[in-house]
Amino acid sequence: MDDDWILDVIADLKTFAEANDLPFLAVSLNDALRVAEIELASRLAQDPALRERGAGASRPIAIYVRRGRGSSGPHDA
Fold first, then answer.
1. Residue 17 CB partners (closer than 8 Å, separation 6+)
2. Domain ranges of the chain
3. DSSP assignment letter at 71
4. What is the pTM (predicted TM-score) of this model?
5. Half-sphere exposure of 63 (CA within 13 A, CB side)
6. Which residues, 6+ apart, have CB-to-CB distance to 76 below 8 Å?
7. Nearest-CA neighbor of 36 among 16, 65, 56, 66?
8. pLDDT tens digits for 24-52?
9. How far is the C-alpha of 45 from the C-alpha of 39, rounded, in Å?
């Protein structure tokens, strides 16, 4: 069984939060989605045999490094 089902569940919850005026929950779920993608990709990187069994994230991801305090940019809240 693919492990990326969890990504769909989190994405669905995020969509619900956005549609029901729950903006802080939506942002938190977006963060949770990114963490899940990173962890699944990391697991696959550490154990390529998982890919052969069909486990892990099947979506491309990008990893962003959080800037230190005092830095500003388009991703800052």
1. 23, 25, 26, 29
2. 1-72
3. -
4. 0.61
5. 9
6. 67
7. 56
8. 999 999 999 999 999 998 888 887 776 66
9. 10
